[in-house]
Amino acid sequence: MLQHLITSKTRLRLLVKFFVYEGTEAYLRELAKEFGDSTNAVRVELNRLTDCGLLTRSEEGNRKFYQANPEHPFYADVQYIVRRYIGWFEFEQVYKYQKEHIQSIYLREKEDERDTYEYVITQKSGDGHIDLDMAEAVGIPIVLEDNVEETRDPHTPCFLIWMNEQQDTVPC
User: Fold this and answer.
1) Within 10 Å of residue 109's Cβ, how many Cβ atoms?
2) Which of 30, 32, 114, 142 has the fewest Cβ atoms nearer than 10 Å?
3) Which has the closest alpha carbon to 16: 55, 65, 60?
4) Domain ranges for the chain
5) Residue 163 forms beta bridges with which residues?
6) Among residues 26, 137, 2, 8, which one has the least CA distance to residue 80?
7) Contact (CB, 8 A) for 140 and 94
8) pLDDT digits (tens, 9 = 90+) for 112-128
9) What pTM does this model have?
10) DSSP string covering 110-171, please?
C-alpha cells in the first residue's frame, strides 16, 4: 500500500531503512550498495529527505552520515506507518521470544513481488536455535542465513535494519 503513496522506490527504501529502528545511521555508498541503486539516485532522495527535515546529516572526514530526525513533528507517525508497512508488529512477536539468539536482522525485497519484504535473520554462532515455526504461525516471511553478505544478490535490495552489538536493547 505504501508503495502507491510513495512512488520512488529509493525514497521508500530510505524510509524503511531509517525509520524501523531509531539508531540506524548510514552513508551514501553503503546505501547505494544495499539498495542496488546508483549513488546519484540515492543522493537525490537523501537530499530531499534532509531538506524536509526527516533526516539529519553529520560529517566524519569526507563521509556524510544520515539518520532519522526524532525531533521532526511527524517522526513517530512516519515510523508507525513504515513499521506497519513491513509487518514489524507481527515480526516483533517472534523477535521478543528469540532476541537472545539473533545477531542481525535484514529486510530483503521478495524477488517475485518487488513491493514486499521478507526478514532475513542471522543467528549468533553457537548460540541456540531460532524457531521459524513461530514465524510461520504469525504469517511473517523469515529466512535464516549464516552470512547475508556472502549470499546477497546485488540486484535484490537487502539492507540491515538492526544488529545486536552486545546490547539488550530491543530494536523498536
Assistant:
1) 20
2) 114
3) 55
4) 2-79, 88-163
5) 104
6) 2
7) yes
8) 655 578 888 887 766 56
9) 0.81
10) -SS-TT-EEEEEEE-TTS----SHHHHHHT--EEE-S-HHHH--TTS-EEEEEE-SS-----
